[in-house]
Amino acid sequence: MQNTIDTIELRTWITECGDLARRQFNYAVGRRKADLSFVTETDLAIEKLLVTRLLYRYPDYGILAEEGTSHAIDREFVWALDPLDGTASFIAGLPLWGISLGLLRHGQPYFGMIYLPLLDACYWAGPDGPAYYNGISTTVLAPSHWHSDDWICVPSNAHRRFTIDFRGKPPCLRGTAASFCYVARGSAIAALIDHVSLWDLVGGLAILRAAGGNAINLDGTPFDITTLLDRTNHSNALLVGAADQLERLRPAIKKLAS
Questions:
Q1: How far, in Å, CA of 247 to CA of 219, rounded?
Q2: Contact, 249 vs 190, CB < 8 A?
Q3: Contact of 79 with 95, CB cutoff 8 Å
Q4: What CA–CA distance (Å, rounded) separates 16 from 164?
Q5: Whole-angstrom Cα distance, residue 161 to residue 258?
Q6: By three-state DSSP, how is residue 20 classified?
Q7: Which phi and psi (to 5°) does residue 19 adopt?
């Protein structure tokens, strides 16, 4: 079985997909899926393009993608693809949407690549690290003290679902992939991530871990990504960042009663 990932080839493909999305940006029309999230023809076109190429290039690998693709997910290597992370932002004309591609090996993040087309920002990491941002290695931020201009990424529903006692700023980027990227490059202290699926996490987690970060459940229980292979959502909120920052931050974030 082939287990060598051609990063240059994948960057070419993901950039091509980004070009496709840029041409549709500000013109896309979304429709609601059964779960009430948005999908556009751009999501579908990118998924079709990448799935076709991945299955041809890596025929022994499985693949799971947001818009319906599910193939051989019991294999050693499984791709996890979100063709347009932040579709609602894409439709609304907001900039932080992107393409997230991850690879599991034995159920654990092995490789990740995220491309934010409007910023021409590509992040990636393999199993041996480091994490890269446009070819420059990156690490997570781990300051000994927090200041008022430090920030954490939060989900768009944070004001309804959480109380957050953090002395810095809690902006919402409206994209899981972008949140992982800004933590991995050392811009954000951490990110609070809620109600996500496998394809939202694999690429970002591979990049985050290569940058020296980790993910924990907000309630302190271990996070097991393999439970999401059946296309369910992760029901517990996640914190991602440097390990020491997460232990300091977790007590400051409380989930509100439903």
A1: 11
A2: yes
A3: no
A4: 39
A5: 8
A6: helix
A7: -60, -40
| Burial of 141 (C-beta count, 10 Å sphere; 0-12/13-18/19+) | buried
Q: Tokens for 218?
A: 């907000």
Q: Are residues 155 and 193 in contact, defined by beta-carbon separation less than 8 angstroms? A: yes
Q: What's the one-letter identity of residue 40?
A: T
> Would you state the pLDDT for residue 76?
97
Contacts of 206 (CB under 8 A, 6+ apart): 102, 103, 109, 110, 111, 112, 125, 126, 127
Each residue's pLDDT tens digit, 176-227 = 999 999 999 999 999 999 988 999 999 999 999 999 999 999 998 889 898 8
Question: What stretch of H or E contains 123?
Answer: strand 121-125
pLDDT of residue 99: 98
Residue 50 clears pLDDT 80, i.e. is over it: yes
Predicted TM-score of the model (pTM): 0.96
Q: What single string gives the DSSP state of each residue in 241-253?
A: E-HHHHHHHGGGE
Compute the radius of gyration of the chain from its Cα atoms: 17
Write out pLDDT tens, residues 213-258: 999 999 988 898 988 888 777 878 999 999 999 999 999 999 988 6
